[in-house]
Amino acid sequence: MTVAMTEHFDEEDDGGEAEVLALATRIVEALLFASAMPLSAEELARSVPAGVDVAQVLEHLIDLYAPRGVNLRLVAGGFAFRTAPDLGYLLAAEAEPPRKLSRAALEVLSIIAYHQPVTRAEIEEIRGVATAKGTLDILLEAGWVRLRGRRRSPGRPVTYGTTPGFLDHFGLDRIDDLPGLEELKGSGFIEGRLTKDLTVPIPDDDPDLRADEDPLGDLFTPLDDGEGPPHTADE
């Protein structure tokens, strides 16, 4: 237990209570360093002594690590240690080069993120071009896209949505942290004159199936079931 940690809590607590809070901080710190995935406050609260406010512990750790080489950040609805943004370049040479997505894959990923749950046919309608099955396979393999269910429509096509891994990889806490229309315009992603009816939907990655979705059921049924004849690939 560090002296600084105990002194921080001594400002508001006395005696044994400060010791308990310091112990809880060490427990949370250890769990976060050992976990490969972000942990929610609820998950962390299960391991700290009874009566401890885990939010207070997390707030202290965020402040404690703010000036250090790793920071505690809120990612994908949970907390995780991440390299300080200004030091990321030091690890670039050691990190495994990420798979570069093609423009088609980026477009498909963006459509899924903003329009989920969405079927392959709906993706193609939005893009205005056919989508190679391999494009979706790459996103599924990366762990950024998942199969949600089947649309209650002829052919019962599969619906796609994003995953917590998508949020983690792109440093997002929640799906609605994705930029809206004004932010996209301000960042230069959307240029030129825009049609009056152009909108950017508010993304929603609620894991529960919608009223027009059924469970996946038999995964051995072809995933393109109901999507029509084979398409010409866009890659």
Automatic annotation (TrEMBL):
Region described as Disordered = 198-235
- Give any single GO term for biological process: cell division
Name one matching Pfam family: SMC_ScpB
Q: Which species expresses this protein natively?
A: Bosea psychrotolerans
Listed InterPro entries: ScpB_csome_segregation, WH-like_DNA-bd_sf, WH_DNA-bd_sf
Q: Which UniProt keywords apply?
A: Cell cycle, Cell division, Chromosome partition, Cytoplasm
User: Cross-referenced SUPFAM superfamilies, in alphabetical order?
Assistant: Winged helix' DNA-binding domain (SSF46785)
For this entry, the protein name equals: Condensin subunit ScpB
